[in-house]
Amino acid sequence: MTFCGLALAPPAKTVVVYRNGDRFSRGRKFVVNQRRFLTFEAFLNEVTKSIHAPLAVRNLYTPRHGRRVAGLGDLRDGCQYVAAGFEKFKKLNYFSHRRKELRGTRNREDLQVSPPPPSRALGCFYRSVFRNGDLLSPPFPLPLSKDPPLQWDALLGALTEKAALRSGAVHKLCRLDGTVVSGGEELVSGRYYVAVGNEEYKKLPYFELLVPRDSACRTLWYVD
Description:
- This protein has 224 residues and is α+β, with helices and mostly antiparallel strands.
- It contains three helices and eleven strands, in the order ββαββββββαβββα.
- The strands form three sheets. Strands 8-7-11-9-10 form a five-stranded mixed β-sheet. The chain has a four-stranded mixed β-sheet with strand order 2-1-4-3, covered by helices on one side.
- The longest helix is centred in the last third of the chain and has 12 residues, at 152-163.
- The protein is elongated.
């Protein structure tokens, strides 16, 4: 049996998109793959809804030089873009307000995000969440209020939106040892968890590879 005739699907790309001319836009993360977006237009339609654009998004530009993106094939993994309608690209420092949340730069307009330190300010408790099987994306913060507590289904819905898993919706939340969290009351502030879809939990060195050694969040409290 030969597999020479089988075409391998291109790998998924993770990008962040800002609203054109909106200096307060914090950007929206998207995972782009052939299963989710068959055409560039389908992706632009999703961007329109997700970033709450006032008009339909019809163009994407690079944030520093305003180069127009012609199609899905031009998107580069880990990069940032600006979404616009038919108006001209507006050159702003779109991610200047996030400098304190970002750690390091690369050569291709992308920025590495670091999780905030554990906090209990104003009754808000932070947990950091990895994506199952993903050793490229840093963990994202999950701030939760203890009063009133968020219903578990609503929490999974919020995780689905934030994680943007390649497998789809988040069905469960696991500790780093793979045990499943069954309710919000089990979540501990300052600890790390893994968002999992309908696939099995993948035990990988998430913490060791994705949390910088000099980060304030790098603490033995991650062990559950």
